[in-house]
Amino acid sequence: MSSPTSSAEVYQGPPHVHHMDPVTAYGAAKLGMWLFLATEILLFAGLFVAFAIYRWMYLGEFHDASLNLNWKLGTFNTIVLLISSYFAAVAVDAAQHADNKKVSRCLMITIACGAIFLVVKYIEYSAKYQHGLFPQFGGPNGIEFERYKSYFGLYYCMTGLHGLHVILGMGLLFWALRKAQKNRFSAAYYTPVEIGALYWHLVDLIWIYLFPLLYLVG
Amino acid sequence: MFRFLPEQASEHAAEMDWIHHWVTDISVFFTVAIVGAMLYFAVKYRKRGGVDHETPRIEGSHFLELVWTIVPTIICIFVAWEGVRIFKDIRKVPADALTLYATGSQWKWDFEYDTGKKTTNNFVLPVNKPVKIVITSQDVLHSFFLPSMRVKVDAVKGLYNYVTFKPIKTGDYRLFCTEYCGKDHSAMLGTLSIVSENEYTRWVNDKSEKQTSPIERGKLLYVEKACKSCHTLDGTRGLGPSWLKLYGKTGKFVDGASYTADENYLRESILKPNVHLVEGYSPAMPSFEGQLSESDLAGLLAYIKSIDGTGPKTAPAATTAQQPAVDLTKLSPAERGKLIYEKGKGAGAPCLACHSLDGSKLVGPTYKGLYGKEGKWADGQTYTATDDYIKESILNPAAHVAEGFAPAMPPYQGILNDDDIKDVIEFIKTVK
Amino acid sequence: MSTHTAAHGSHEGQDINYLNHQKGLWSWLTSVDHKRIGILYLLSITLFFILGGIAALFMRTELAFAGPTLKFLTPQMYNVLFTLHGAVMIFIFVVPGIPATMGNFLLPLMIGAKDVAFPRLNLFSYYIYLAGALLALFAVFWGVIEARSLEGALDTGWTFYAPYSIDSGTSVTLMAGAAFVLGFSSILTGLNFVVTIHKLRAPGMTWGRLPVFVWATYATAVIQTLATPVIGITLALLMMERIFGVGIFNADMGGDPVLFQHFFWFYSHPVVYIMVLPAFGVVAEIIPVFSRKPIFGYRAVCYATLAIAFIGFTVWAHHMLVAGISDTSAIFFSIITFAVAIPTAIKVFNWVSTMYRGSISFDTPMLYAMAFVFLFMIAGTTGIYLATLAIDVFYHDTYFVVAHFHYTIQGGAVIGLIAALHFWFPKMSGKMYNETVAKFAFALVFIGFNLTFLPQFGLGMMGMPRRYYDYPIEFETLHTWSTVGAFLNGFGYTFALVNLAYSALFGKVKASSNPYNSLSLEWQTKSPPIHENFEEIPVITEWTYGYGKPLPNTHH
After folding, report:
1. Number of domains in chain B
2. pLDDT at C556
3. How high is the mean pLDDT of chain C?
4. Contact C200 A20 (CB under 8 A)
């Protein structure tokens, strides 16, 4: 039902891209997304470097502070993101085969996983806030402990920035989902799914680095 | 062109000006050559009569590319090398250098000499004697710049940087702050007066009021802050390394990296002892962050430097009144516990180094209200501060660490016996 | 001569071009045409150039004489002025600079494309830029209103060094936020250009046939994309520090102020190459046209461009040689800084060699290009002084550095921009500017610029520190001369810009499609070009620089 009946009806892409043929447009979009991913990695790299330096300087206290993180919730979130990445990849394949309904289903699951991830993060954040584990408060139960400020400052910055990217990724995938619902995708045009999935894989990858660094190694 | 450079008032100024001269020669030569060639071509090959003449389609020359890659490379290597060599030279501190401390703050420079002499903005040094000025900041970034001496280094809070030079001419020389520091950055001017040795000696010993010299201050802190409990002055090994000939000593950390005990490392050991651990010692030293002012730190460093084997090897007596001999059996358990708290026993550090009695949080939990208190460990389990738990904390503190504290407490196994521990617990009970 | 397929407009006789094919303000504000976006950027950056320049003139007036010169100007207001001068000029003028204006306008034309890879993203980038610029203005106003005086605007220096930037009561957080937003614009533009050059070259336009300006734009775009995120995170950490007191850069809390400098300069050194590499590209386009000769050593010039971009990422701590880094680090960064001098020297030698046995005309663009060579020789050689470790100990944070970076940025990037504006003016506007006024303005700019900054080398040699509101009397003479130069410089720019603006709006002399007989692809279109640039995408069969009579026994 979602396969085009004749080549004349195959959706080649949005009309505004008038100055490029579809093949070039696809290549350009992909290259553009890869470059954008590179900038995102550099953005997070700065935070990772700052974290590494401070952890090296204050190993004891950072380890201590990391014991406040709930590794069970962290593991759960990791699994959720891995599942979501799987479905994003399946969506790309489905799009290439013009199975727009499957694309919609997979993207909805991916987005839902993203939402679950965010809900869990909200639970974690609010629990910490209640315990006073927030940079302004310093340490647990309101006790000022300087090193906790650095640790949690970086923790919130890194996971917060990551959370923001999860939201952005969900937005991007939602955009692709809307197009799938209009049966746009086929072997001739599946760019939004591909670049959306690429972005989502990066979001997942960053979490794969964050999780052990913050929760496990500590 | 060189009349712009200030007079060469330090020994290494001539060297620096020499490389400066070379770079100028090279720069002027190449600029004149290139711009000259450009103007020559412009004139010689200019369009005449409003019509372009025929030009050859010369695309390049491998030979020329090679030449003008290799020649600048050789020149750069030469200049870079000399720059590094001279830099290393000017950074060497002679063994007999006079040391003083300079602290930048908004918006002045405070100087302190070994004799205790303090001065602000205008300071004096003797001619022909090498000097090392250790520089730090009390607030924002500043930079210590003596143009005529050709020295400069930034003043950074939390760091000790230094400049070293040997003045060779008497006179008055400008001191500038050369890192933007706020409103009166350009008003932070000072003067360095270079005078004869005699005049300097007179000046530096002339103190309007009794000011403790850094070394005296350090000596007092050695006892007051209980460094004495772990560090000896005569070379014997305690819980921590002896201070005898400690300054400048080299050694290894437990991770294999080597260190030199310079000002920055000693400062780090005092404020953040857990960052680096010297091979052969346990991580027992508490942090003194927040307990020592910059002035205290400078004093301790000066005192440590002075323990070079030439002075008395015994520790100074406590400045409080002489302790009368105490018959311990006449004391109550709590009183005995209090003595252990204050003075420690054997090689153990006294508890007061890390535990307060007034509720303030030091490296370890306060004794106030400690007995019977409920709390959480770092792994989330709850505890009650019973006799058993307190005993465990004393003998084997690493077993459980209270939430919010670093695992810095040394074990007292072998230092305090069961009776001692009972006494200490009795004392703790009294602190409400 | 040229064997490019000429792209004649079939609109000949109707004179429809990108400027008039759609009219009205709204069509300009919503256009995704790279040429119109380039013009939008041009108007915006010019406005901020003027603001930054006015700040500079106030500073120079105050500095003309020892002691307070302007009664209303307090030391703190001076600090605000130099901060805003730096921040506006760098973040809002020179960094977008040539890439956002000339890069946007020329890139598709030079490679034979109808637009950039992502035209809507291009327009979005412009609006992000505008948002950032307006946020910066807001930061200034907010600071002034909060403090109820002009002293309340940002006063940390454009470098935002901790700990001062953390303590300062002025509008640091807002301004850091503005710079953050501006960074996004830079990243997205860079990304757009990289994809454009990779994917949209016309058939036959191989990498080896690309104009040097395109290579320069490419290298610049790579730096924009990769380096800018780092300043983003640095500013974010600074804002976090100010809002939450996290302690990363605060020595009292175990943080490290010097770490801020490392983060900051990791971007801010590559950014100077973002500023100057496009200018190098402009010069490499102008000199061949007005010498009627190919650019000498095309391959070497292109490789040198890439080398500068790459090495530029490795030298950041040469801004910190006396900041309290270890002596070993200082030695390393000093040595590696010399590495970046060599490709730069190679380029200069190649430009001058291009003129050898040429047929030299002295139109205004060529005058600016030749001035560039002179100014950049001074810029580059004074960089050698600063790279030399023993010398930098003396010169760091003195006026020597101020003079050096004005020679590189103004004498380099800004002169490059003005040269480009004059050179491509006929293409962009379809008209010619007044050559006499332009040459007069050039003379004022050149004399004024050198008179402003050569004395500052002298001040540096005397040991005069930077960012000083006032100074001891022995520095006065050189300062007075410098101020005279600054005003001449300002007049020069005013004449140049007014000339261009007037000619664009009211000029009567129409330009032909290729008044300078360039072989480059952008000149094979109408002046101004039609909306789609080319009637048909051309097929390229020749190198861009086929000037002059082929030598015997050469192949291409």
Report:
1. 4
2. 47
3. 93
4. yes
